[in-house]
Amino acid sequence: MTSQSVTPDVHFPVERLNSVETPCYYYDTRLLGDTLDAVNTAASHPAFRVHYAVKANTNPGILSRVAAAGLGADTVSIGEVEAAIEAGFPAGSIVFAGVGKTDREITRALRLGVGCLNVESAEELDAIVRIAAETGIKAPVALRINPEIDAHTHHYITTGLAENKFGIAISMLRPLMERCRDSQHLQFRGLHFHIGSQITDLTPYRLLCERINTLRQEYEDFDIPWINVGGGLGIDYDHPDIHPIPDFDSYFDVFARHLHLSPGQEVHFELGRSIVAQCGSLITRVTYVKQGVAKKFIIVDAGMTDLIRPALYQAHHKIDNITSAADAEEVYDVVGPVCESSDCFGRDERLPLTQRGDLLALRSAGAYGEVMASAYNCRHLPGSLFSDSF
Ligand code: LLP
User: Fold this and answer.
1) Do 323 and 14 form a contact (C-beta atoms < 8 A)?
2) What is residue 12's three-state secondary structure?
3) Hey, whose CA ends up nearest to atom 22 of ligand 1?
């Protein structure tokens, strides 16, 4: 992927960070603002609507800034719906998705007036019809289809294959479309797709457009106001300063060129990672530099409880020592304090000579970082700081 615009590096206010409690997430609000501007510009096609996939980061400071930029919200629990409303997203701009919505969540979402429920099974549709009838609120629904497209990403974050739990098989679609069209309790909004996450080759998106075009022909007899193509655009984890903003132009261009639309039809996108990943870093302090038999270890005060992506998906976040002024470099394994061997942020990392007390930044951690933190080992949750307000 190529960089869309040259934005200055994330600038770390080292002196101020030196006085805060670590580990903590640091968000560069200027980069977040530039990224939101880039998304809005690239998606300026009149039929395009971008929703922020709230699951990537629910910090209220992130949510309110994204809401202020005019994006809608894509949510997967009633907790996320409520957090989005609290942060300023209008209820009508919120899509509520997820394979396991409970009756309580469906009822509350209808009462709050969410814009759409993305339905993942015939069984869920039964529940929605029943609750809509009970509450007297017509339910706006889209059907999530499993497009069976391989996004060639990590197997834990691939979602569009038949073997995944997500969505409705194309072969099972027609009776559900008919039910959505004919039920007095439902308002049919459209079709929803999502093929996976951290997708850096745009080819699967072109294949998705082709799959959708074929489906639209097959369902010519239905009015389909919205086509929701999901999210998943990847970022460059290795070069956060060279590619601080993903190539949104090329991404949206795939859909502008390959997706056939009817007049008035809208295309919805649900981007999470590509909007918030690069503006966030996990700041952690070096507790010890330990000489082992064959290796040197940097033991930091952040662990897999603060950033689980390396342990869970073998992900790598670029590591910068933001306080060392040394020219000389050394090779270290960078590990956390948690009693699990997977609590490791990097093996054989070449870093400037590092000492106890130095600060490291684990870069590109704004998406699926803070929001996936846990209190395992009775560890405290990491704090957060915004560059424009501390
Ligand atoms: N829409 C749906 C239906 C999704 O399931 C997801 C992500 C998104 C949109 C947003 O995808 P994004 O644009 O952020 O790639 N925790 C993992 C990622 C899990 C993604 C789950 N679904 C990670 O840290 O890589």
Assistant:
1) yes
2) coil
3) 197
* pTM, to two decimals: 0.95
Pocket test for ligand 1, best of 39, 49, 50, 55 (most atoms within 8 A of CB): 55
**Residue found under tokens 């590092």:** 354
The total of structural domains in the chain comes to 2
Q: What's the average model confidence in pLDDT over 150-175?
A: 76
CB 124 within 8 A of CB 178: no
Domain assignment present for residue 21? The answer is: no
Residues 259 and 292 in one domain: no
User: Domain holding 212: CATH number?
Assistant: 3.20.20.10
Give the position of tokens 């106001």.
Answer: 225
Partner residues linked to 227 by β-bridges: 191, 267
The CB of 53 under 6 Å from ligand 1? The reply is yes
Q: What is the Å distance from ligand 1's center to 18 Cα?
A: 33
* One domain, residues 148 and 242: yes
pLDDT higher than 90, residue 279: yes
Residue-wise pLDDT for 47-102, tens only, equals 999 999 999 999 999 999 999 999 999 999 999 999 999 999 999 999 999 999 99
